[in-house]
Design brief:
By secondary structure, the chain is α/β, with parallel strands linked by helices. Helices cover about 55% and strands about 15% of the residues.
Length: about 375
């Protein structure tokens, strides 16, 4: 039994250490080369913010805009048929800041089409997309202006927990992001977030495959990343907190599950073999770990069970620490052991719901396929 536990531990270190730790430092080396003399001109960047019924969440974004030390060309809010007071809240800021509001016509529905409508009604070399519930630091655009021009930048979207249980919602995304950063260093990023995504307008128009996925209500960020990859366009990732936006965690377990089901649905539809393969390997390692742990408890070898658990936890603490340090979320890092104990149950819930439960987003179906 000791040999099996040792073999598992060695294989786990090789896998998780290579992806998360080695990949992380390789990515940092890449990012050091992203600061040159040919940097972004903020007057060539517009920010597109599609929104629908964000009355309760939009205040943090508007507050962040008021505190900025410098501005892009414009913030363009695209109203996706809101039925609350979101528009009225934004209108209070239009006169004092570079903010515009446009309204999607009746035939234009959904976040994807709202973004494209916003592009049609604007002009700029670069597009930066935000979600309507994000916040950012006053020097966000100063930091953005230090980056070398490129076709696409994947920038950090960090969830910030406010309560004990919200840390478990936050850490789920943080661990995924850590793997994404590592894979970007080793090979290529696996995921993008439209909450903080910068790209070249001309390249977007060249590669956009909206006809293939337009009926899927969410996931424009991931489909766009796929379009760039399949057309051999340059994609860069930055992991520094200086380039991050902050978003709140889901407010309930139901909202958390709905969010993860939406993400899983669009990920499976993308048919990214590398991403799928890593997910399968990670799931195998997780369930083998729990099978071994339960076996040790059943046969009464409690000492070895505790040692095995502590070793696994120590490995995870060590390899993920540099990433959590970089995004300044060490409190959430401390939740890794609790999250790992709950992860198998969370996974089983997700897998069981996949077969019969269809979450909605903003009152609409996720997919019309």
């Amino acid at each position: 039994m000791s040999l099996i536990l040792l073999s598992y531990t060695v294989l786990y270190i090789l896998l998780i250490g290579s992806i998360v730790l080695v990949g992380f430092f390789l990515q940092l080396r890449k990012e050091r080369n992203y600061h040159t003399e040919k940097t972004f001109d903020l007057n060539e960047i517009i920010v597109l913010i599609p929104f629908r019924n964000e009355e309760e969440r939009i205040d943090v974004l508007l507050g962040s805009i008021t505190k900025l030390s410098c501005f892009p060309k414009a913030f363009i809010f695209i109203n996706d048929h809101s039925e609350d007071y979101s528009v009225e809240k934004i209108e209070k800021f239009v006169k004092n800041f570079p903010i515009e509001i446009i309204h999607s016509p009746k035939e234009v529905m959904g976040k994807k089409m709202a973004l494209r409508y916003g592009m049609e009604k604007s002009s700029s070399k670069y597009i930066l997309t935000f979600d309507a519930d994000v916040s950012f630091s006053p020097d966000y655009f100063e930091q953005l202006a230090t980056l070398e021009e490129s076709g696409m930048y994947l920038q950090p979207a960090i969830m910030k927990a406010e309560s004990f249980w919200e840390h478990l919602f936050e850490i789920d995304l943080a661990l995924i992001n850590a793997v994404n950063v590592g894979m970007a260093g080793l090979k290529r990023p696996l995921m993008a977030s439209g909450a903080n995504l910068l790209y070249d307008r001309d390249t977007f128009n060249e590669v956009d495959s909206i006809k293939e996925h337009g009926k899927v209500a969410s996931g424009d960020d991931m489909y766009l990343l796929k379009d760039y990859r399949e057309n051999s366009k340059e994609v860069r990732l930055v992991s520094s907190r200086n380039h991050a936006i902050i978003t709140e965690t889901p407010r309930s377990f139901r909202e958390f599950i709905d969010q993860r089901l939406r993400w899983l649905g669009k990920t499976s539809d993308l048919k990214d073999n590398l991403s799928t393969g890593l997910a399968v390997v990670q799931s195998v390692f997780t369930f083998v770990f729990f099978a071994l742990l339960i076996y040790l408890l059943v046969v009464g070898d409690y000492y070895l069970a505790v040692v095995f658990l502590l070793v696994k936890t120590g490995i995870d603490f060590s390899v993920f620490f540099p990433y959590f340090w970089r995004i300044k979320r060490l409190t959430t890092w401390l939740f890794i052991p609790l999250y790992e104990l709950l992860f198998p149950f969370y996974t089983l819930i997700i897998l069981s719901l996949l077969f019969w439960y269809r979450p909605k987003w903003k009152g609409r179906k996720i997919s019309h396929k």
